[in-house]
């Protein structure tokens, strides 16, 4: 029997359509769910929507709509968004559903009967957006909510309260003796520090409110939205009716949540579960926030990216890949169109897309569209298989530690290695020399590397994985799970599929912010992106659009090429740019010999600032101005005691 794995996301509010920040959490959890399926688990992946918030009712009234009618429409819109992002959730809980009301009632009743819910009056600072009370010392200057930065109001109510204070010691003890319960560790420390400041009972009902689930003990009160929302994690596995399902999947293996809601998940939730006699989840993983050009995403402030528009433009894989690869899981990360395009073009279009098309075009041309036979295996071929096996092990280790960004890089590293392998072994040259045994072995090796990479990358880019596998002509049994991933799984003689471009390169004008909402929102979003471009430029080495516009790219023809003594990555090139002849050094010697470069047309940066180039004796520069491709290796050369040539 397969081991079980139950994972959840937070359930977003429905008073606005989700932005890319919400999508990040969904995609990351989907990657975990898909990975676990690949690793042989029986997975239950739950998401849903938090509909009982007073903000939903408020928004509906503003729009002149009935709240239920409004939340029905929003729940559908949100599910369509997750569909566009290819989420593979097994269930979707709406907190206005009957099954959830039953779960909330049962849970509330258990806690009440245990004496953990009592009635009292309460006064305090209340943030309507968080739907939470704050202590005075938690507020920012001027009585402002620390999360929403809007003014809190003084609220006085007679409510039902949950005896959180009773669980203070138990919680501390639980979190201390279960170090894996809250991750990352920095959050765990924050949680423990919060407990050490003393836990106060919190209100679990609201009086004189109609929207929400009435408490089972007093119909004049509705259940506080956070108390009800957390229970969705139980509803989604059959609580309280379907005990077989509940016993199978509960306790949850991982709740994935954002950094603004750890207090509810790491303190309220385990205490509530202790009170109701329900086992505590294995882990709460607290991820960081995705900013847009350095700014907090906010639909109301117009600073956001619409995930559906982004998917329509670039496909779900590209958006998923960027989010998972670029944002370290557990830390904050930034989205900008510049970094998105750079990452897409480098990893997906160049590395993965090119490897696939280069390999299969040669298979098509020289092997009649059939997986080539394998001849004698040389050490360089075996090295690719060994690299793939090591990358797979690192991938599994990273995934198991929820280091999703690192796991993704391990998957793509197989592609990078295979590209270098092709450049080194040159199957086009062996084919030209009519050595079809060697050519076949090389292409088979590259195809296997692609198959392995497609399996490992499939949780992140599921559509691309299927498309790669279809082009390789792989059948499903060869790609369904990690355990059966063996080198040599492709069968020589099997037909390959129809070739198609996997990820067309993106050529975009970066001053546009595609998929950002129009009108005022666009204007604001764009401004933010511009500012961020400059900030980012300093911190990450990314250039601004203005910098990009300064770059004079030109096509040049290589007239002469020669190796540089002592610099194994450099070639000296003499090139013709328009009417002019120039010299430059290029870091291409690992991929091309000097002879191969002659006659090639290359792209050069024609206006790179002339600079002092350090060179070995007999080298190219001979005191002349050096310009060209950005791959200078001057520091490396200098460390080999080279002789300096200064521009005249
Ligand atoms: O908090 N980057 O709903 P929500 C990353 N209904 N994650 C982000 C984000 C960003 N820019 N913005 C929001 C709620 N999130 C409650 C949850 S669960 C029982 C109830 C994350 O719509 C946020 O941290 O405000 C949360 O995990 C999720 O999106 C939903 O946020």
Query: Which regions contain 5 or more consecutive residues with pLDDT less than 50?
Result: 510-540, 614-648
Radius of gyration: 29 Å
What kind of oligomer do you see? single chain
Overall shape:
elongated
Helix content: 40-55%
> Could you give me the name of the CATH homologous superfamily of one domain?
Isoleucyl-tRNA Synthetase, Domain 1
Class of one domain, according to the CATH hierarchy? Mainly Alpha
- State the CATH topology of one domain: Isoleucyl-tRNA Synthetase, Domain 1
For the sheet with most strands, the description reads:
6 strands, parallel
Mean residue pLDDT: 87
Bound molecules: ligand ME8
Strand order of the largest sheet: 3-2-1-11-12-7
Portion in strands: 15-25%
Determine the structural class based on helices, strands and strand pairing.
alpha/beta
> What is the second-level CATH architecture of one domain?
Orthogonal Bundle
Number of strands: 21
């Amino acid at each position: 029997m397969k081991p079980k794995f139950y994972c959840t996301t937070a359930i977003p509010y429905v008073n606005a359509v989700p932005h890319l920040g919400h999508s990040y959490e969904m995609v990351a959890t989907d990657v975990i769910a898909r990975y676990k399926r690949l690793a042989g688990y029986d997975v239950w992946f739950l998401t849903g929507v938090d509909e009982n918030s007073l903000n939903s009712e408020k928004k509906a009234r503003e729009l002149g709509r009935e709240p239920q009618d409004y939340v029905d429409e929003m729940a559908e819109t949100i599910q369509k968004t997750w569909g566009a992002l290819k989420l593979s959730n097994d269930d979707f809980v709406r907190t206005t559903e009957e099954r959830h009301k039953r779960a909330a009632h049962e849970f509330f009743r258990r806690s009440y009967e245990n004496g953990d819910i009592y009635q009292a009056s309460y006064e305090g600072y209340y943030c309507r957006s968080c739907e939470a009370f704050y202590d005075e010392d938690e507020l920012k200057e001027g009585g402002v909510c620390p999360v929403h930065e809007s003014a809190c109001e003084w609220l006085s109510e007679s409510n039902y309260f949950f005896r959180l204070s009773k669980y203070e010691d138990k919680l501390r003890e639980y979190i201390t003796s279960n170090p894996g319960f809250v991750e990352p560790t920095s959050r765990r420390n924050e949680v423990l520090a919060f407990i050490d400041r003393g836990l106060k009972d919190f209100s679990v009902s609201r009086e004189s409110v109609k929207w929400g689930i009435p408490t089972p003990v007093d119909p004049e009160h509705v259940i506080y939205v956070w108390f009800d929302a957390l229970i969705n994690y139980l509803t989604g596995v059959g609580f309280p009716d379907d005990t077989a399902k509940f016993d199978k999947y509960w306790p949850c293996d991982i709740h994935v949540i954002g950094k603004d809601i750890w207090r509810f998940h790491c303190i309220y939730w385990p205490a509530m579960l202790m009170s109701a006699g329900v086992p505590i989840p294995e882990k709460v993983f607290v991820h960081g926030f995705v900013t847009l050009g350095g700014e907090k995403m906010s639909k109301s402030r117009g600073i956001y990216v619409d995930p559906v528009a982004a998917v329509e433009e670039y496909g779900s894989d590209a958006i998923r890949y960027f989010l998972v690869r670029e944002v370290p899981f557990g830390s904050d990360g930034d989205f900008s169109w510049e970094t998105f395009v750079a990452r897409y073009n480098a990893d997906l279009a160049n590395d993965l897309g090119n490897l696939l098309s280069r390999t299969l075009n040669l298979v098509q041309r020289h092997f009649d569209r059939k997986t080539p036979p394998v001849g004698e295996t040389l050490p360089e071929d075996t090295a690719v298989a060994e690299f793939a096996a090591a990358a797979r092990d690192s991938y599994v280790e990273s995934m198991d530690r929820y280091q999703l960004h690192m796991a993704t890089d391990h998957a793509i590293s197989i592609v990078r290695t295979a590209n270098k392998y092709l450049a080194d072994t040159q199957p086009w040259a062996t084919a030209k020399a009519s050595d079809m045994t060697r050519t076949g072995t090389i292409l088979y090796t590259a195809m296997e590397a692609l198959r392995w990479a497609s399996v490992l990358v499939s949780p992140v880019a599921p559509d691309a994985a299927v498309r790669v596998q279809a082009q390789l002509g792989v059948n499903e049994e060869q790609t369904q799970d990690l355990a059966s991933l063996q080198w040599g799984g492709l069968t020589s003689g099997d037909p390959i599929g129809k070739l198609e471009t996997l990820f067309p390169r993106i050529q975009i004008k970066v001053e546009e912010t595609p998929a950002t909402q129009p009108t005022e929102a666009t204007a604001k979003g764009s401004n933010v992106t511009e500012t961020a471009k400059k900030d980012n430029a300093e911190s990450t080495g990314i250039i601004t659009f203005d910098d990009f516009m300064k770059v004079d790219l030109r096509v040049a023809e290589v007239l002469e090429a020669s190796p540089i003594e002592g610099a194994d990555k450099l070639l000296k090139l003499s090139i013709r740019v328009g009417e002019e002849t120039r010299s430059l050094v290029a870091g291409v010697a690992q991929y091309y010999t000097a002879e191969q470069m002659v006659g090639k047309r290359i792209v050069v940066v024609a206006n790179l600032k002339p600079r002092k180039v350090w060179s070995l004796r007999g080298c190219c520069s001979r005191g002349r101005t050096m310009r060209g491709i950005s791959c200078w290796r001057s520091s490396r050369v200098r460390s080999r005691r080279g002789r300096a040539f200064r521009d005249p």
